Amino acid sequence: MQSRGSCPAAQAPTLKGAAAFVEDNHDGSTECASTAVVTQLKRDILLCAYRAKEGHIASAFSIIDILWVLYDRLLQYDCRNPKWEGRDRFILSKGHGCLALYAVLAKKDFFASEVLDTFGLFDSPLGGHPDRNKIPGVEASTGSLGHGLPMAVGVALALKIKQNDRLVYCLIGDGECNEGSIWESCLLASHHRLRSLCCIVDFNHSTDRSLELGDLEAKFHSMGFEVSVVDGHDHKALARSLGSGPGLKPRALIASTVKGKGCSEMENNPAWHHRSPSDDELENMLRELR
Amino acid sequence: MRRQLVRTVESAMAEDERLVLLLGDIGVYGFRHAFSSFPSRVYNIGILEQATVSLAAGLAAEGLIPVFHSIAPFTVERAYEQIKIDLGYQKLNVVIISVGASYDYAALGCTHQCPGDIAILKAIPNMRIVTPGSAAEFDALFRQAYAGDQPIYFRLAEQAHSLSLPVTFGQATVLREGKLGTVLVAGPLLEKTIKACAGLDVTVIYYTTLEPFDGSTLVAHSYADRIAIVEPFYQGTLCHEVVSAFGTKRSLRLLPIGVPRQFRQFYGNVHQQDEECGLTIEALKEKFDDFFGVC
Questions:
Q1: Dist. CA B258–CA A153, nearest whole Å
Q2: In this predicted structure, what is the pLDDT of residue A2?
């Protein structure tokens, strides 16, 4: 028996920390707990990147709230049976944000948390971009931008052919929206009425220094998507938007995010796109993430 | 071969519900019956090859077997990175079937020609590559190999040989044996090559599967150091496979014969292009006689 947001109760390994989802009790405690978990996941990510001297930390911090809300509250999956046919699918199209996915998958017991310590090592399953043939729970090997969304469209089409009503979430970056294959995918998703598909745009303004995207909301709307805009770090708002369920069209959720969110030195600082912290930087950042 | 493509794929779709056909806005009329027979599994996907290959990867990840069909330069060269990462690297069972081999569309010019498809696809690990020489061979090889755990590319040519040969995916066929050397020939050039070899005491080995390459048959039936390689694509494409098959066992003298590695400067038709490339019976015979030392 599979359940939402964690492993089946009968097989469930011990959840570490305050990960278990409880219904919102209207006093904000759920959101506090959720935010606390993300803070801990950010610490895990920092340590991974520090040990490996590798990683796109800022990109991971940009999307970690979205991923946590998805895996903690919305997605159906079975961490003991990652290929379970009844699961919802999640594809991280901006593969360089994979440290966030690894941290969430470990937290949700797709693999042991100790595996995180191997990130970037020669024989680790966890590389700088995710590999579906090595990591339980990873649906697509991504890294070169513009591949994950069309693959998610294929997954959504396959589910439609198989008359499987599960949902397909795909997270892309605003920089990734430069790629033509993103817009090819939108045409396909819209034409084939792939209502199970939800494309989440991590809009952290990475592309601002290169290509003007204009009105992204209008662009997705004109492509035939139902579009909503949300604060990509507000768990309650994310849960509401992401969980609103499929309508008649594919959905696009434009999540307004801050690259490097939570570490002041890293926030919106292009120097931190791809680097690992020094000893001093790590200490300062961990202090900030308490 | 295009008529056979329709017959074979429609027949296979009736037997295997995993097959999904994606047409890059070509072959739509030819497959008109498939649209009505399998409405949920046949798509005129449009002219967006990059997204189509990735979409096919998504279908394959869900256990379906997509067959993507379009013209060679658009399937292979336009979507090359998608084939590399989404199919080869992820080891997904997507079938690509191209038409317009090398200069089949001679009159349309270089934008619609693709003599380099095999060379670049061979640079992608996990790709299986097939060049049928006739309609019957396509039918047999498709049925043998479309299902698997890796992507596969079928290269269909306008020209075909008229010989009837049993073919097996992954295996070369030895047509005859000789002492002067070996002629290796791939796909539709078989008949011309056999005629050009008439009277020569050489081994002739026929290849329809180029990847994985059956090197052991080549080594076992080659009795001299001279190997001529007749390729209906860029010349020299298979040199690496031949050299690797022999390893350090023998010194070799190779004669690659194929499409010269330059953009075609002329239009016309396939026969005129063959003549210009030296891929006629007479031109092949002259090269063989010279290479194998027959004057």
A1: 40
A2: 52
Select from A90, A135, A157, A187 the residue whose CB has the most chain B CBs within 10 Å, as the one to mutate to test that interface.
A157
Could you tell me the pTM of the whole model?
0.94
Question: CA distances (Å), A104 to each of A65, A162, B257, in order?
Answer: 10, 29, 56
* Nearest CB partner across the interface for A159, out of B57, B62, B89: B62
Q: What number of helices (H) and strands (E) belong to chain B?
A: 12, 12
Question: Is A178 at the interface with chain B, CB within 8 A?
Answer: no
ipTM: 0.95
**Do both B133 and B189 map to the same domain?**
no
Q: Which helix (H) or strand (E) holds B193?
A: helix B190-196
Task: Please say whether the beta carbons of B242 and B184 come within 8 A.
Answer: yes
B259 sits in which H/E element = strand B253-259
Counted domains in chain B? 2
Average per-residue pLDDT in chain B?
97
| Tokens (6 digits) for B56 | 């096919």
Whole-angstrom CA distances from B10 to A13, A178, B21, B94 are: 48, 38, 9, 17
pLDDT tens for A13-44 read: 333 323 334 345 566 778 889 999 999 999 99
CATH number of the domain that residue B272 is part of: 3.40.50.920
User: Which residues of B are less than 8 Å from A149 in CB distance?
Assistant: 54
Within chain A, how many helices (H) and strands (E) appear? 8, 7
Instruction: Please indicate, yes or no, if residue B235 is contained in any of the structural domains.
Output: yes
Of B159, B179, B131, the C-alpha closest to B274 is: B159
Structure confidence by residue, pLDDT tens digits, A52-68: 999 999 999 999 999 99
pLDDT for A24: 53
Domains (range + CATH), chain A:
22-288 (3.40.50.970)
- Tell if the CB–CB gap between B90 and A141 is shorter than 8 Å: yes
Question: Is the domain of B253 the same as that of B114?
Answer: no
Chain B, nearest residue to A159 by Cα: B62
- Nearest of B86, B92, B40 to residue B61 by alpha carbon: B92
Domain interval for residue B129: 2-155
Confirm if B23 and B32 have CB atoms less than 8 A apart.
Answer: no
Is residue A147 less than 8 Å (CB to CB) from chain B? yes
Chain B positions in Cβ-Cβ contact with residue A159 (cut-off 8 Å):
62
DSSP letter string, A247-278? -SS-EEEEEE--TTTT-TTTTT-GGGSSB---
What percent of chain A lies above the pLDDT cut of 90? 87
